[in-house]
Amino acid sequence: MLIEERDPADGELSALLDAAFAELVARYGPEGRSQVRDGARFLVAVVDGRAVGCGAVQPVDALTGELKRMYVAPAHRGQGIAKALLGALEELARDMGHRRMRLATGLRQPEAIRLYERSAYTLTPPYGKYVDAPLTRCYEKPLASK
Hints:
7 strands; Aminopeptidase; 3 helices
């Protein structure tokens, strides 16, 4: 497996993001797509020459990065790709100067909750648009210095 940075306009990345959104719609209904702001950096997991997973680090402030768009295609789940991708995204966040990573996920994504909790993310009060979102759980993790 290779994990590499991709431009947000990359075709394979766009296809993964569309698939991730479709899965969210299936789980939660047709809610609005949350924006990834300028400055977000995307990583893609590649297996056998095909992009099979993605995620992004979006700067919140000088010390905080937010994990966005974490997704692994269903046919490639259970192979450790999400864990490797999460580790690479944390490394990218450190390289960007962040000291902590935060994220929001949903109650209807127990596999994501398991991954984050096993990766030392701790439940934190909801932030931003998630304050009034009862199906959302927010997590945070301090990132060790390099």
